[in-house]
Amino acid sequence: MNNKVFASALLAGFTAIALADPMPPPAIYNQGPASPLVASTDISAAERAAYALLEGVMQMAEVRISTTSCSLSSGTSEIYIFSDGSNNKPDYNIVTVVSPGSIFTLRATSQPFDSFKGQQIIVNQKGIGGLNQVPILNYHAYVSYNAKGTVMEMDSSIQVMGNSGRFNTINGKVIKDFNLVNDTSTGLPYIFDWGVQSISKQGFPIHQYWQRSKVIRDDSVAGRTVFVKDRTSGPTSCRIVLDTHDYNNQDFFYQTGTLNISTSTPGSPVDEFNF
Question: Which long-range contacts link 240-247 to residues 24+ away (Cβ below 8 Å)?
């Protein structure tokens, strides 16, 4: 193909993309915002701590990917999480991830809940750890929920061993919405979330992820929690899937499962959501 033909084909592709409709919002927003003034998810204290911890796990995976590559990060790790949402008791809100040759632990310190403002949670790494043999340390995050449990924001920082043998500082920003939806076919209530995240280095964004999750509590069925992130800005496609199961009730969140990293594309099906 000569340069003129290639340029024409490339321009035609860009024109087709430019004329296409932008990606639509999730269906739940079709009629307007899922307003925190009129909707509530009833997310418990245990769930708020658990989701903060699990989001921290996802970010640990993201920095591992950013410092090497998606293909070199691919594989499955084991997750163990317990939280009861106790205020100022990080040993009661904890997650551990075991990967080949590495282990790391995060703990959440919940601040008192304010019925008007919401709740803040601080997540810190316990000791030095790593993921798939890449050292990671000093993970620290501030998490904020609104009072209705429909919006979560998170700002984090972490140090990861780079290819140069030195630790690099990576920052992360997350914002997501939670929505409680009753499935008319099963009669079961699900919590869904949708959002985006970026990670930055030296103050500049380097990757962006599309985030969504699906949760069911252990109300007559086994509880299950699935978080999925697809990289939408970065060198290659990369998907992170966190899938845990067992207990999620008003008293505590206690689940085990897996963290999987793959080179799946954003448009490929998510089999883990089929529950």
Answer: 240/58, 240/61, 240/62, 240/65, 240/209, 241/270, 241/272, 242/54, 242/57, 242/58, 242/79, 243/272, 244/54, 244/79, 244/81, 246/218, 246/222, 247/218, 247/223
Mean pLDDT of 68-85: 96
Instruction: Name the one residue in this structure whose structure tokens are 């293909």.
Output: 71
- Cα–Cα distance between 110 and 253 in angstroms, integer? 14
With a pLDDT cut of 70, the percent of the chain lying above it is: 88
Indicate whether 11 pLDDT > 80.
no
pLDDT of residue 108: 98
The per-residue pLDDT for 6 is 46
The predicted pLDDT at position 247 comes to: 96
d(CA 190, CA 217): 8
Task: Give me the DSSP letters along the chain.
Answer: --HHHHHHHHHHHHHHHHHSPPPPPPGGGTTS---TTT------HHHHHHHHHHHHHHHHHHHHHHHS-HHHH-EEEEEEEEE---BT-GGGEEEEEEETTEEEEEEEEEPPPBTTTEEEEEEEE-SSEEETTEEEEEEEEEEEEETTS-EEEEEEEEEEE-TTSSEEEEEEEEEEEEEEEE-TTT--EEEEEEEEEEEEETTEEEEEEEEEEEEE-SSSS-EEEEEEEEEEESSS--EEEEEEEEEESSS-EEEEEEEEEE---TTS--GGG--
